Amino acid sequence: MQLACLGDGQGFKNGRHAAVFVGVTPKQHSSGGKVVMIGIDKHGGDKYLRSILYQGALSVISRLPVEAKTDKQQWLINLVRRVGIKRACVALINKTVRTAWALLNYRTEYNSQTV
């Protein structure tokens, strides 16, 4: 992830704000208690970073095993079955950006567990 894009994480209130900045959160159109999620805004955020993250997420999803070995793999396999590959890619990108924000903001190291 481009460090210059998120900086040290202090510029964002939380991980969701960082994900909105990159442009990987779904738009919401709600009225009268009915929530409709439209999709991500492809015009806002960092297009280059979003495209690289999407390609990476697509690569991870395309290499998923049939039988999950970890909880993260099981989550991703279930998500792909439920919403499809493209939406699962966006969800994985969202999760990745939020994780990156937390690592930068709290100045911790990533505990590498394979997805």
Automatic annotation (TrEMBL):
Residues 3-64 form the Transposase IS116/IS110/IS902 C-terminal domain. Pfam families: Transposase_20 (PF02371). This is Transposase. It comes from Shewanella scandinavica.
